[in-house]
Amino acid sequence: MILGSTNLYLFSMFCLASLTSQVSLPSSNYYIGAVVEYHPIIEGPNSTAIAEENSENFIKFLKTANEHQVDIIVFPENGLFSGEPFPPIFHRSFYLPHSTYLPDHKEFKVLCRDVSSNVMEVVKSISCAAKQYAMYIVLNVHEKEKCLGDNCAEDGYNLYNTNIVFDRNGALIAKYRKWNLFAEVGFNKTPKPELSSFRTDFGVTFGQFICFDIFFGAPALELVREKNITDIIFSTHWFSHLPYLTANQIQAGWSYVNDVNFLGSGYNAPATGNTGTGIYAGKYGHLARIWNEKAANALIVAKIPKVLNGQRMQPINQNDTQIIYYSATEIPSVRRQILMSQQKLFSEDLSLFTSKLFRPINGALSSIVCHHDFCCNFTTDTLYHDDVNKGSNVKYYRYRYAVFNGTVSYPKLGIAGLEICSIISCLDDNPKSCNQRFDINANIVHPVTFNSIVLSSISRDSINIPHFPLSIDDQINPLNVNDFTFIRKKINETHVSLNYTLTKPYNNLMTFAIFGRNFVNDYFL
Ligand SMILES: *[C@@H]1O[C@H](CO)[C@@H](O)[C@H](O)[C@H]1NC(C)=O
Ligand SMILES: *[C@@H]1O[C@H](CO)[C@@H](O)[C@H](O)[C@H]1NC(C)=O
Ligand SMILES: *[C@@H]1O[C@H](CO)[C@@H](O)[C@H](O)[C@H]1NC(C)=O
Ligand SMILES: *[C@@H]1O[C@H](CO)[C@@H](O)[C@H](O)[C@H]1NC(C)=O
Ligand SMILES: *[C@@H]1O[C@H](CO)[C@@H](O)[C@H](O)[C@H]1NC(C)=O
Ligand SMILES: *[C@@H]1O[C@H](CO)[C@@H](O)[C@H](O)[C@H]1NC(C)=O
Ligand SMILES: *[C@@H]1O[C@H](CO)[C@@H](O)[C@H](O)[C@H]1NC(C)=O
Q: 49 CB less than 6 Å from ligand 1?
């Protein structure tokens, strides 16, 4: 009898525990995810000391996340170790003393207060926080590993840009070493790209990659194609480029085309063109995204619908999303704002593109523009308020059709195959001005309203030529998924048709583009 009632007592304790528990269950339709946009501390006596200061700030994000019952949180690339002293020093000898050893993640070792391992204290402290808050934490670190043999550097180490994942006990459960380095001189690559994924106790399997990886097939697209990953972790230190590759634009486009949940966490340094963080739910739309013209620290928390058999288990609801900004006293990394009204963006070199001025009218227009046998068919319906641009001191965007089929070269990085159909905004009638924007404080008027746009084309059917709908308005917001359709359809053995249609009126378009990558024509260092 006594035994029986004890069992009953334990049973009800267990029920109570799970009722009041803050973790998402395998049976729930959603989980709570969080991404951090972080403005790091980059100055200090050495990178170990810098990382310790940054980790104190990370603990503040974790405290807030814990109050919001977050299951998994993602920190940005270079957020902890910050990557750059000022001025930057790109030498292994600078990074090596301040990089961490890591055990094999297959050991599932809890690093918190683990005296037997030579892991850096700062990494152990984040493991302790994962345990304290019972939260999955994704952290980007500089990792070192002793090596031997022909492929080993003279100093006897491999040095990696690595994402690590702690589970709710603080155990190291996954590790991903960045494959597509972005001119990160002195860092090493694994012999092959790693497809890193991990399963959580709330029933979701995540895949992860870092920053420039999003531009390539391996490992990013392979995670979706070969491992059926539905939820992606993306840590980034992104340098936004106009008109096609601003941070939220590529994150939203990648999430949409692959129809995956996408947790993108961005490094914040607007003076060097770095911002852009968001949580996107593929074809269901954007849960939340942020773009900061000035230095800032912010956390996004969202209820993310789980994907089962290709279907999301509940609709997205922006009411279940929160964006929390921290003041400079709460997180003191924004020590001084550099005097500038908006962040500095990079510009894509459009000099090799075929472009043609778009002459706005009231009504429909059709045009076909080709570059190296690749033709785009543009059909637009516009309203043209030519009276609004008469005032003095007003600025307004002009538009051009811009088409490209070939390779572009990125200094110090390599050569990328691109296939692009687009309508892009320009500062004036000169095509050289189509990769810039007006100062956001200028008096900008909008004489052209696009009621609809149809962009169509034919391309080769190949897994090595994926296409992304990459569009933004002049606030650098990716277009709402309900405002366009994008269809890539096989038409015969060898070719696909592309059709990208704007279905809602916009008077502030910046870029409307089908952005194709041709991996076959890539040459990267
Ligand atoms: C980094 O700098 C701090 C503060 O000056 C010092 O105490 C520490 O020993 C240094 N660490 C390393 C690994 O050089
Ligand atoms: C991915 O899904 C496809 C189609 O449902 C299935 O055939 C394949 O076995 C799955 N692969 C993995 C690694 O789960
Ligand atoms: C979101 O909140 C607003 C204001 O409280 C409410 O009117 C709306 O119905 C909510 N939307 C959903 C989808 O719950
Ligand atoms: C793009 O150009 C290459 C040669 O430069 C050509 O082989 C290919 O067919 C073109 N693509 C399309 C879709 O026409
Ligand atoms: C271009 O697209 C429009 C509709 O979007 C279609 O009516 C027209 O036939 C197309 N032209 C060519 C040459 O494909
Ligand atoms: C497929 O269609 C494209 C575009 O119309 C054409 O150039 C190509 O020859 C066709 N291929 C086959 C195998 O019919
Ligand atoms: C593209 O799709 C739109 C909307 O579905 C359709 O109206 C249009 O005819 C299509 N155009 C082409 C050229 O396929």
A: yes
